[in-house]
Amino acid sequence: MPHHIVHNPALKANLLLDTRSALGEGAIWNDEDQKLYWVDIEAQLLHCFDPLTSINQTAHFEQKISTVVPSTDGTLLLALKDGVYSYEKSTGLLCNLLSNPENHTSGNRFNDGKCDPSGRLWLGTMGASNSAALYRIDADLSIHMTEAGVTTSNGIAWSEDNKTMYYIDTSTHKVVAYNYNDKTGQISDPYDAIIIPEEMGKPDGCTLDAEGMIWIALWGGYAAGRWNPKTGTLLGKVEVPAKNVTSCAFGGENLDTLYITTARTSASEEELLQCPYSGGLFTVKPGVKGIQANHFVKRTK
């Protein structure tokens, strides 16, 4: 299939919601209720946007929230600063499932997370000087450290054949690819799939499209880029009128809309004057479709 967006320099994201988020993050499309979920980490908010009604609902929590993923039992799994919680959207009931293994020692917090094809939750932490890690949370809620020495754990994605996992530690400017065993959840043989040039910004959240290409939000880069993870080649870019672009996810009925979150934090007053909608939620129709997000599969007794 031709990568027909490659030479389109005019691909620009449009503002959808002017939320002025301090740190918008973690966009994910839930195919069950056809809504987009995302968070504002600093403001401790969970957002839920319904494209049919254009209504954005918001829930506030007592601590920072960094990840939201749908669960097969109809709840949402949330990563808050001190642990992983189950959240009943209709009642607002919050139930602690698992403590953050690093919170007591370092003040590290959970950051980005996604579910693998078998429904395990992969969740990373962030902290100073390589004190963070990447964890895998299985159906029985057991937690396994899979990578140590991480600084800012961010985007995670899986190839459609379930044989490769892509992972971003933002400070390294790289996307690392692993051989991935879907039966066991083991990762092995890491290699550098994509190197992001410093002048493009730092890689943050990511998502795969139906052609197997990886879209990466670029912190400090005013853009989201599309790369071929097999060759490391940049195929195209979506310009975003905000300096710090944080995550992206395909959504909409046909999974053909790319939703992009941004942040106001770490932008100067001058940059915010130039880009007043920084922190907003943006969209673009890039001409390719995404793939459905995986849900967390809880083990039933």
Largest sheet: 4 strands, antiparallel
Put simply, the count of helices is 2
Q: Kindly state the mean pLDDT as a whole number? A: 94
Strand and helix order: EEEEEEEEEHEEEEEEEEEEEEEEHE
Which CATH first-tier class would you pick? Mainly Beta
Q: β content, as a range?
A: over 45%
Mind telling me the C-alpha Rg? 18 Å
Query: Pairing-aware structural class of the strands and helices?
Result: mainly beta
What helical percentage do the residues reach? Answer: under 10%
Q: How many β-strand stretches?
A: 24
CATH fold group: Neuraminidase
Write down the overall geometry. globular
Spans of 5+ residues with little confidence (pLDDT < 50)? 1-6
CATH superfamily name? TolB, C-terminal domain
- Named at the architecture level, the CATH assignment is 6 Propeller
What's the end-to-end separation, in Å? 44 Å
Overall number of structural domains: 1
Strand order, main sheet: write it out.
Answer: 1-24-23-22
SSE arrangement:
Layout (H helix, E strand, L loop, with lengths): L13 E4 L6 E7 L4 E6 L4 E6 L4 E6 L4 E6 L5 E5 L2 E6 L4 E7 L3 H4 L2 E7 L5 E6 L5 E6 L5 E8 L2 E6 L5 E6 L4 E8 L4 E10 L6 E7 L5 E6 L3 E6 L4 E7 L4 E8 L5 E7 L5 H6 L6 E4 L17
Antiparallel strand pairs: 1-24, 2-3, 3-4, 4-5, 6-7, 7-8, 8-9, 10-11, 11-12, 12-13, 14-15, 15-16, 16-17, 18-19, 19-20, 20-21, 22-23, 23-24
Description:
It is a single chain. This protein has one domain (14-284): 6 Propeller (Neuraminidase), CATH 2.120.10.30. The protein contains two helices and 24 strands. Strand 14 (153-158) and strand 15 form a beta hairpin. The protein has helices at residues 103-106, 269-274; strands spanning 14-17, 24-30, 35-40, 45-50, 55-60, 65-70, 76-80, 83-88, 93-99, 109-115, 121-126, 132-137, 143-150, 153-158, 164-169, 174-181, 186-195, 202-208, 214-219, 223-228, 233-239, 244-251, 257-263, 281-284. The protein has 301 residues and is mostly beta strands.
